[in-house]
Every structure is written in C-alpha cells, then in structure tokens.
Write a structure and sequence with these properties.
Layout (H helix, E strand, L loop, with lengths): L1 H4 L25 E5 L4 H6 L6 H13 L7 E4 L6 E4 L2 E4 L4 H18 L3 E5 L1 H8 L5 H4 L4 E2 L5 E5 L2 H6 L4 H22 L1
Parallel strand pairs: 1-2, 1-5, 5-7
Antiparallel strand pairs: 3-4, 6-7
Helix pairs in contact: 3-8, 4-5
C-alpha cells in the first residue's frame, strides 16, 4: 500500500512536495495518531512527525507514558501543501476536497491496523475521521465512536502548541493530560 501511494494522483497535491509521506508504525498498534499533513521536514524525510511538531509530540508522549514506537502515526493528507516564499516553503492548509480525496488512504490504513483507539490531532484529522467539520473544544476529553468502528479521541494539533502565546504551559500540560488518558484507555482495552 505504501508503494502504491507513492504514485497517487487522487488530488493535485501530488504535484506539490517531494514525495508521498505514508503512515508508519506496527500493524498491531493499539493507538493510531492522525495528524494533518506532512510539513517541510516530513516531506524531505518521507516520514510523519519528524519536524518541530513531531518533536513536541515525542516529548509529550514520553511525559504521558505512551511509547510512540508501539503506535501507528499517520496524516489525513499525505502530501505537503505549501506556498513558496523566496527560499521558504510555507505550510498551507489542505482544503475539504483534498482531505476527502486522501481519506481513501486512511481508510486502507485503518482496515490494515484496526486500531482500538484513534487520536485525531487537530481539526483536519477530525474532519477526515468523522467525515464532517467538528469543533475540537467540544469533542476533547471524552471518547467518540468513529464511523468505521473503534474509539476516537480528539485533541489539539502539536503545531497549535508551538504557535500559542497565551497559557502556553497550561495548554501543553492539557495535551499531555489528554495523551495520558488515551494511553490508560488503550491499556484498559488491551
Ligand atoms: N504536522 C502534521 O500534521 N503531520 C506531520 O507529519 C508533521 C506536522
């Protein structure tokens, strides 16, 4: 599937970026994390969540007692969408049709991994999983059912925590708290 995704032309984003960034992790993972789309560093490395947002996620997972290597990490959209400004590639948000086109890949990953718990990191991931726009604040902190089965949790995207100015530490602590609850839930469901 990963090999097949390298040639994906389901939407125009294949013209953007260096490569398809597919999900990675063990197929028996109990938790699947879904982000938005690869960033600049992920696009170059071909791996999800290796740049600044990924490093923040790694730190928070360690603090929450969740072993990232036992989880499956992927993105709602598998190509980096950006605007070129001089030498810099500035992240640009995927739109609804792009999220919908890429949902096919997430569905395949979900059929293969069948994670008991899926975590939407931010609004794009939540939109992809639930098939409609949702509000993170209203859904955070409690389990939901994903239309294709299993339990879903919704929390903020790590990039939000990099950007936020007000109550930065409290926001980060709340994120770690979400991950801790999710880790406990995954152990309880085992
Ligand atoms: N942000 C995401 O949503 N995914 C990544 O892989 C990196 C940054």
């Amino acid at each position: 599937m990963r090999a097949e995704a390298t040639g994906c032309t389901r939407c125009d984003l294949y013209r953007c970026g260096t490569q398809t960034v597919f999900g990675e992790g063990p197929l028996d993972a109990r938790i699947m994390f879904v982000g938005e789309q690869p960033g600049d560093q992920e696009d170059r490395a071909g791996k999800p969540f290796v740049g600044p947002a990924g490093q923040l996620l790694d730190r928070a997972l360690v603090e929450a007692g969740v072993d990232r290597s036992a989880t499956y990490v992927t993105n709602a959209v598998k190509h980096f969408k950006f605007e070129q400004r001089g030498k810099r590639r500035i992240h640009s948000k995927p739109n609804g049709p792009e999220i919908d086109a890429c949902r096919w890949w997430i569905e395949q990953e979900r059929i293969l991994v069948r994670p008991p718990i899926t975590v939407a990191l931010g609004a794009t991931a939540a939109r992809s999983l639930f098939g409609k726009a949702v509000t993170i604040g209203a859904m955070r902190g409690r389990p939901h059912t994903v239309p294709d089965g299993g339990e879903a949790w919704v929390t903020v995207h790590p990039s939000f925590l990099l950007r936020v100015q007000d109550n930065k530490e409290q926001e980060y602590a709340r994120f770690v708290g979400d991950l801790r609850v999710i880790g406990e839930r995954a152990r309880a469901l085992a």
